[in-house]
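So, read this over?
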Amino acid sequence: MTKQKMQKWKRNLVVMTAITGLGFSTFYTGLSIPVAAVEQTDQPIPKKESVSIVQLVVPNDKAKDKLLELGIDLTHRIEAHDGVYEVDAVVTPTEIAMLKTFGINVNETLITENQWNTRVAERQSTVQLQASLAASEQVQLICVLGQD
C-alpha cells in the first residue's frame, strides 16, 4: 500500500467511525444519559413569605456559629454581653421557626414588611405632594412676575 492510500484509508476510517457513533446516538436514545427534568422528584415551589427585621437573642457561640452557617441575613447591629449575643436580622416566619430549634429566639420585631411598605408609600406620597406644591408655587411666581 502506498502512503497516499494509507492516509486516505485512515481518513475514511475516522469519518465512518464518527458517522457510526452519531447514528447510534441518534437512533438508540437508550444509550444516552437522560438529562430531562422529568426524572427529578416533584418539589413544590416555596411560597413567598413576608420578611421582618427582628432582634434575635443568640445564647452562645455554638448557636452563633449555626446562625452564620445557615446564611441568615444579618443587619449591622450585633452586641455581645456575658456570652449572649443580640443580633438584628432579616428573617421569614419559616426561618424563625428553624432558629428556635437551635435555641435562637426573637426578642423583638423591629419592623415587618407591611410596616415597611406603608412607610415607603407614605414617603412617596409626601415627595409627590411636595413636588406638586413646588411646581404650583413656581407657576404662581411666574404669573406674578409676568404681570409686572
Q: What stands out?
A: The radius of gyration is 34 Å. The longest helix spans residues 113-147. Residues 55 and 88 are 4 Å apart (CA to CA). The helical segments are 3-27, 61-69, 93-100, 113-147.
